[in-house]
Each structure stands twice: as C-alpha cells, then as structure tokens.
Known about the structure:
It is built from eleven helices and 21 strands. By secondary structure, it is of the alpha+beta class. It folds into two domains: 4-203, Rossmann fold (3-Layer(aba) Sandwich); 208-414, Glutamine Phosphoribosylpyrophosphate, subunit 1, domain 1 (4-Layer Sandwich). A hairpin with a 2-residue loop joins strand 20 and strand 21 (406-411). The chain starts with a strand and ends in a 5-residue tail after the last strand.
Amino acid sequence: MEKTKIAVLVSGGGTNLQALIDAEKSGVLTSGEIVLVVSNNPDAYALERAAKNGIKTVTVDRKACGSKAEFEEKILNALAAEGIELIVLAGFMAILSAGFVRRYENRIINVHPALIPSFCGEGFYGLRVHEAALAKGVKVTGATVHFVNEVADGGPIIFQKAVDVLENDTPETLQKRVMEQAEWVLLPRAAERVSAELAKRKENKEMKDLVELLKANPYPGRGIVVGKDCVYYWIMGRSRNSRNRVFTLTEDGIKTEAYDPSEMQDPSLIIYHPVRKMNGALVVTNGNQTDTIVEFGDFRKALMTREYEPDDPNWTPRISAVLYENGSRELSILKRVGGTCLRCFYNYESIPDGVGYFISTYQGDGKPLPSFEGEPIPVRLAEPANVWDALNNDNKVSLYTNVKGDVKLFNKNLGD
C-alpha cells in the first residue's frame, strides 16, 4: 500500500516532531511518511531535527509576508509541491484560516495539551494551558489529538489520554509530564490511524473506464492520460477560434496550428507545443508551459513559476505531465482557488499495465466552465481510436496518442 505523505507544521523545539520521527523509525507510524517540515519560525530547533533526519524543510516567516493570505499561500504551495496528503500541527503557533482548512478537510490533525473541551480555544496554548489547569485546581489533565476545523480546538476528537496533576506541580513540570505521558504517545498513534485511512481510501478508489468517462462528459476541455507505456492528449473547443486547429508533428513532439490561418483570431492561448522531449523524458501540457518546463529542465521548478490561464471568468487550469525514462510519471494542475494559484503535483513511481491516470481542465460544460476537482482519476485504458470516438463529436478537435513510441494524430478538421 502506498504511504500517505505527511507534512508537519512547527514553530518551536519540535519535541512532538521528534516523537513522530521516532515512531516512523520504530514502526509505530508505518502507513505514513514524513516528507516535509514547515516552520513559521526560521529559528525553530525543529528545523534542525528535521534536517538531521533527512527531511525536507521549508520556512515561511509570517513577519516577512505582506498578509496572512500571502503567508498561507506560500505554505499551500510548499505542501502542493510535495503532494502532501496529511498535515500534522505539532506546536504550530499560528491559526489557520477557514479557507486553508477547507482545502485539507479532515486531513489536518493537531495535538492540544489538555482534555478538550477543558482549557482549549483561542488563547489556550503552551504553558498557558497548564497555568489554567493548576489555577482551576483540577486533579486530572491530559492531551487530545483532534481534527482541525474552522473553530480553534473544535474539530472531532481522535484520541485523548489523561495525566494526573501532582500536588507540587508547576506549569513547567506539568507540561513536561503531559508531553511525555500523553502527547508523544497519542500523536504518532493518531498520525498512523489517519494515514492508514487515507492510504486505504486512495488504494480503493474506484477505477473508471476511460471511454465511459469521456462519453459521459460533453466537455472535459483539454485532457491528459498517462500510463505505464502510453500518453494521450486531446483538445476540444466551443468557439470557432478554438475549433480551427489541428495537431502537426515537430522534430521533438507536436504543435497546434490553425487549420485555416485566415480564420485565426487570437492565438495566444491556443497555439503552442503540447508535446516536447526533455533530456530523455517526454513533456505533455495544455499550453506554453511545455516550453517553460523544457527550458528549466525541471518539471516542478518550472511550474512553480507559472499559474492558471488568464481567461477570466474560466481561469482555465494548466495541466501538465512528464514521462521519465525510468518509468515514473508525474502530473500537475495549476488552478485558481480563492483568488490564488494552487499548484498540485502527483507522482506515480510505477503504473500497472492497462491502467492510466486522467486529468482534464474542466469537470464538464458550464458558464463559467467548472475546473477539474480532486486528484487524477485512475482509469482503464482503451485503444486510441476508441478514445477518439468517445470524445464528444461536436466539441472534439484533435487527439495525440503515443503508445510504446507509436505516435498517432487524430484531427477532426482533416476528416479523422
């Protein structure tokens, strides 16, 4: 089963991060893998802990950002770049907005040093929690791991563990005992449980038939399917300008051209090189980001400089794929969410025979056109001619297929 990719968000010493790292090494955390640590504090010792264990780190300093929206956008871009599926808040001293939380709904967990609903909510963090518990005179406190929602410490509880309050406790001694007896025990267990659920959900996601999927959608727009030894790319159009195109071969791939040059109006977003070679790899995209990727020689770094198309009100996503020589495949979508660009990357180390991963620009027809949602869809592959026939006849324009190096072009304007 493919492991769930975890990011841990930190602000300080990182003792809970260390508990997660130790749990992964000892086999307590087996369904998830910590691939990224993000800190809002450049001096956080947690960053050193991560580096010592070979985990990638990113610092997003809130003080250096012009706004909270910019701060969160930088974090989201870092998460998307690593394909993060689960976020663990481990002493992260920043409140995430409702918009941020919605993007990772039921995929953000937090550890709180009290038995929720006691001593929780805004203002209750760090030593303040233990000071409040001692001031109240409680005999038992503890820790809680819960899902994060738009209410501070208000999400569903995953685990809780009680810890006795001793007669001579200070906030510092109580904090230390709650961490050792509860937080460091519960957080790895919760991360494992949620990671396992996410991994199982991903593995059991229903596979769809590519032909049936296309037949049911009159307007997926532009689409890419990558498989073990194949790639398909098609374009569709609703306007006369978009439909006035054909695919033609180039030395290192294909390009779009006007079928009737005298009818071409605005070529800015419809004339480009969808397919090009790059250092032994094959790059396939729905726009001129193909050239950006080839020029950079690095798929992810190149796409971090690009964003969705400027075609208000559709804001068409940019979809891209790269087929590496070693058999791994990577897909990406750059889409507008809440006025900012969300960059998502999906890596597939190996794909079984007869299976592909499908992504398109749109969910279907509409005004404005609804952008593709969710992760690439696993599909059963079909013969190129059957894929061409499955595309809506009124809207399809061209199809490129490359199966084991056998390239085929289908162009409606040429009678295919």
